[in-house]
User: What shape does this take?
Amino acid sequence: MRRFIILTIKGRYLPPYSVRPDAFSFWPLILEKREFANYSDLETFVRIIADPKIIPSVTVYFSQSWHFNIGHALFDGLYPVYVALIRFSPRHLNPFRILAEVEECNNCWSEDIYNRFGGLGFLKKSVLDKMSRDRWFVFDEFVMGSGTFCQRCTQPHLQLPGGVELDASRLFRDRMYQQHGVLHPIIRQKSSSEQRTSDNLLRAYIIDNKRFTDNDRQQLNDVINELNNYTNFHLNKTMNMSTKLEWPLITVTYIYYDQVKAENLSHIQINTTRIDSRIPQYELIDNNFVAQLKLLRQMDIHISGPGTGQMYQIFLSDGSVTINLGSIRPSESESKKKGYTSYLEQYLTSGAPYIKGLYYPINERLKGIKKDEVIKLIRQAGQLILQGFSLPVNPRENLGIDGQLFVEMCEKDKKFCSLVTERLPHTPFRCLDTWAEDIVHEYLAWQVEGFENVSCSMNRSLLYELREKYGIKHTSV
Assistant: This one.
């Protein structure tokens, strides 16, 4: 049949229903319904005519684009459907199967993450389609539809959907560690300084970002040298332990995630049998994502620019700090210095109240990344951690100032807020496929004259007033 069908009895009331199976479903899907005169007819059809294959336990379904990119794979597919599952507690705590509509891909390691995360296996919709041409399948329990929980589904409070109110960020993080066999990050209840002392050595990691220029990387290298030299000097120096340090002791490491690899255990020979459904050591070996999780759980300070490099901040331990170095948008304006600062994934930071977010100064970023600004941010992060910032962090305080401006715009301009957050079928896609900074700086369809025959409306007088209030310098792009 190759479609989902609800079997029910005539006269049985079903509330109005529709689902959005993926992040870009603007037209809700209404499932086909087949009614039978009575329960006996329904039983006859199921037991004798259909004689289906039963798929046991809980199955969650989503449609996923671009799962070759780990950011999209985790937060446009897996995270939204997990948030949906949380609403059917306690199913989110138990093993479940994942059914996903994904593109054919020979090397998408996100599929292994899906498989381990769910615990009951990973089934592709394309396989189910082929297998169901002449037979029926019945799901024991089926959860379908993730609504507007996707990472790019803009919320009025500019938070990762469900991250705070459903505690979904923490639950997602903890399950990811659990299902990959990695000890959970340290849990801190009230303060970042719990289980730390004032002379603790803090570990900071700068994650390489495709938006960094050669000059940016040189400046960051100088940051590493200066901070590590300071730390090494004081660690090697024979000093009175009561000596008060001017700055926290921080070691800084530059990493490329694609170079973080699991230990190679190919030297251990394991015999397979003809009926092994997968390699016998599958549950016992690590993949590269496990190696990345082990690195993330020990980060005190996480530093990167916008994009995929920021996605993993969700997996940081309680009381960690993430520093968003920003980038210049649009990218082609970088050499002209006529763009504007872009932080992109700040909704992830505001949606994870167990970490603290810091941002490169918004009006300075157009000058490129500078060593002194980064050192100031890293030392500020270290001081915040050791002095003890309160947990949970106020989500609004975890936004950049342009994000805070957006939230205030949403509070005061309800028509604008509805346009950009409700994802209604007739809303122009350009008004939804946007970032807070695009709105703040009136880019593309947010320009006065619009863009490509699309114009997104807002209270511009309010925008100009708020730009002045938050001290955001604006250059027309």
Q: What stands out?
A: Residues 214-236 form the longest helix (23 residues). The chain has 15 helices and 13 strands. Residues 36 and 42 are 6 Å apart (CA to CA). The mean pLDDT is 91.
